[in-house]
């Protein structure tokens, strides 16, 4: 493989006012020394493991998560590229493209038992990153055609009457029953002892599988009715797909296709504003299209709207107000602190790397640099303080204490993957070595 040239953008101004954290270099060194422990290579199907053509990264060097995962890989790739491993990031991306060509979608992970669901779509963002590094138009041509197939899956299998998308699955009855058992165990209850009808139990099981497709398993955003909702983050990402596709089409000289994708992105933006924006609260929420109302849970997913560039500038300030309910001493809580019926792990008091990544980058993208820097410093402090006492990085942290005293639905593994990727990116952002892309004003007004 030809050597990939990494071009780093440098933003002046941040480095001079960067709060110094003396423990950052030790974490960066730990990450550099341990990337290799997460690399796997299996080219043939073996038992439940799906063969992939290139070496790939898994989330952790430990016993859990020994396969490739979909949305984890985006955040991992961002770190790999910035830490000097662009070839590995490209291999990861090619593996996910291979999965689309073979299965028509990216599975949740590279196991056959994940065939009933995908995960929050990030593949167009990975392709965009690799193309910017290589400039390989033939590779982009092939990747773009494959990405359109993946987009087609979301538009065929996960579309609602609103024109927005939702999570779901093609789960068998056996898998639904398995998730009812899993949900009971992870939420600390017995769902079979609630007096639910068989129909209600089946729907609940389907909703658990859909939450697993979201990656936020489990959370209070959907009142355990995930398939009834149009999530903010999913539709923000699909907006980003449409904008990326416009850019890819333009790069490939397909002007009419470019215009079609811009129109799709503008329509999705209009639908997000129509269904997800509460004009009284002046805030965005997931939309319950079955009951025609918005969720009453504010989540960190709202910042995905900024990261994707899905809202006009006049709405950005409203989203920033969510910090009043989601920002804590060590970053952004997955969901606001409210009394919930179960101790969900994708909620307060947990802070997760992906949410902090797109919160920081989204705030910066709309010009809220002070807020972006503050969140980055807080979350990185959680990582460094915990690293000093445990010698490891972790899947999630306590947003109040910065420790690993978190709400768990399973034994929390030590993590490299998205924690390392997010740490590298936020460190480089604070150093003035990384900035989010400018808003795509060449395609639509802001």
UniProtKB/TrEMBL annotation:
Transmembrane regions listed in the UniProt entry: none
Source superkingdom: Bacteria
UniProt-recorded name of the protein: Trehalase
Gene Ontology terms for molecular function: alpha,alpha-trehalase activity
Annotated InterPro entries: 6-hairpin_glycosidase_sf (IPR008928), 6hp_glycosidase-like_sf (IPR012341), Glyco_hydro_37 (IPR001661)
Source species of the chain: Alistipes onderdonkii
GO biological process, any: trehalose catabolic process
SUPFAM superfamilies xref list: Six-hairpin glycosidases
